[in-house]
Amino acid sequence: MSANQKLSDVSSLLLNTPEAFYWCGFLSADGSISSNLKRLALVLQERDINHMRKFANYIKWKGNIRRHEIKGRGYLTVSAMDANMIPKLVIERHIFNRKTYNPPSDIPSKNADNRFAYSIGFIDGDGCIRKKSKSKRGSFLSVKCHSCWENMLKIIGESLCGFNKVNVKINNNGYARFHITDNMLLRDIKLKAQSLKLPIMHRKWNKIDISFISKRILAKERILKTKEFLDKGINKTTIAHILDVYPSAISQIIKRNGL
Q: Which pTM value belongs to this model?
């Protein structure tokens, strides 16, 4: 066993847990494996030092996080060697060499939470979360990869969105891309990631305000509440008082939604 092997335990990436699959998704986006399948490396921008520390702690890294510069910009690297475990990562977790042109065919788990966690990890690696330009609190999520990733992006998007169909498009430059702009869905995705205790990259996910309730979200919640109260035998006037709306608004909700 080499000195570098003793500095880490990458076998934790093979555990059947959401956190392990989160890091596998992240590595599928931002990690690299040497051609001889002995070294696993992760390089991040210096501003993501806290996230690098989370990864280093997860694989029990005992070495230093190396800093270097490229064109004046600071980067951080953790590079772990394990000739026994890294080939298993390739086979069992589909973290490939030359991944830009060699994407996995599927997320390497049938468990819904693991698939979701892998997708969150991939978003943290290659995705983007921003505020909508015309909204102080609304957000959108987007992912852009080489067109080779078109099918894999559909799988990742469906895993995030509860297996609803996701529209992945190829742009004029040959990149596959999808967006999520629904604030309610983004809120639910963030809440689920938190409930699974995933080590999300806060720099990105802090841009989704889970307390933000758009008009669309508010309308949907009123519909659900109205149905709930009607099922309990509560009359329209009382429902309107509870929801702080006019009784005519409750009548419209009942009529439009067949309640």
A: 0.81
Residue 254's H or E segment, with its range, is: helix 247-257
What single letter denotes the amino acid at residue 34? S
Contact 74, 65 (CB under 8 A): no
Report the first-to-last Cα separation within the chain, whole angstroms. Answer: 68
Residue 20, helix vs strand vs coil = helix
- Considering the domain architecture, whether residues 162 and 55 belong to the same structural domain is answered as yes
Q: Are 146 and 174 in contact (CB under 8 A)?
A: yes
Q: What is the mean pLDDT of the chain?
A: 89
Say whether both 199 and 94 belong to one domain.
yes
Number of domains in the chain: 2
pLDDT tens per residue, range 100-134 = 888 999 999 999 999 999 999 999 999 999 987 76
Give the pLDDT score at 1: 44
Domain that holds residue 246: 215-257
